[in-house]
Amino acid sequence: MINFNKAKFIKSAPSYREGPFDKAEIIVIGKSNVGKSTLINALTNNSNLAKTSSKPGHTKLLNYFLIDDSFYLVDAPGYGYTLTGSKHLDSFAKMMESYFDNPKLKGIIFLIDSRHEMSRDDKDFFEFILTKNLPVLVTYTKCDKLNQSEKAKMLKRDSLNIENTDFIHSIFTSSTNKTGIDVLKKEIAKIV
Hints:
single chain; 5 helices
């Protein structure tokens, strides 16, 4: 049974070929500083599990976290910002392209900061992951900062038409007050 009670860091790897490769994987992906590591900590109720930073571009490798001895949550580097220039962007693109060839990948948690409009990078990456025909959990972070009207405007503004398929779901979350965290856990368990 998957309940996120047992979680531990296993390893960092520059590509999935150097990853553990023995269990199903769910990748957590999004723009730099969107809250990927913070969300992993909220899911596992362990604020020290995934390293967080207020500086964008902190995560540079794929970080594997074993959940309940059942599957890996994989924290990916963020896209859209780098302190090291285009060489980092090229290596990120290669890392992600090869990662999505991973036969152990079972689903994608795609994070969007609810406070900001989707960038061109967000939209391009979303289009890319749609080509992979995997379940996608579009997860809006930092939703404690929005009221219901602002959430509705945000969904209309982003206009992904994400509810038109059976394998894409939208979830509003807040790591601060745990909004949506249990819903996200249930959706991840369904995928795994």
